From TrEMBL:
Compositional bias annotation for Acidic residues: 1-23, 50-67, 132-158
Residue ranges, annotated region (Disordered): 1-70, 129-166
A family per Pfam: DUF4399
Family annotation (InterPro entries): DUF4399
Domain DUF4399: 51-136
Protein name: DUF4399 domain-containing protein
Domain of life of the organism encoding this protein: Archaea
Amino acid sequence: MEDEDESNPDDANSDPETVDEIDHENPEGSVEFVQPEDGAEVTNPVAFEAEVEGLELEPAEEEDPEDGTGHLHVIVDQGCVEPGYVIPQDEGYHHLGDGESEIELDLEPGEYDLCLQASDGIHNAYGLTDESTIEVLEEDDSESENESENESADDENGDTNGNDTE
């Protein structure tokens, strides 16, 4: 069957809804992941930091958003949302709804495709996006060994981590 209907009723909750009409302009500018860098290997919690130009970050609101304002989303393994669609409130969509540009997430070990995306105050997706890939590593004994080695070196240099008993 070559002419299958592409819509799947089972996917209704995962598809972003379309916006009938947006009465404000898509801002010119950019969003970019500052941290973690593309291709980074990280451990939990994963700290995300964004740089934003040409958009004033404001908390999400339930009323008419002003031109040039919005908030960010870190989207994990869902892909960026096409402008003109609402960014879902589903798993994998992390809303920075207070107007912040940083968030920490706990992710299972593995590789992730990320999208940083701006939207207006009522979650209508803008075309301002940045994409990257990271790998979240399991915290293992090698990290503990490195910390022990660093503490030993500090002790040899007279640094007792502020535990002086004078």
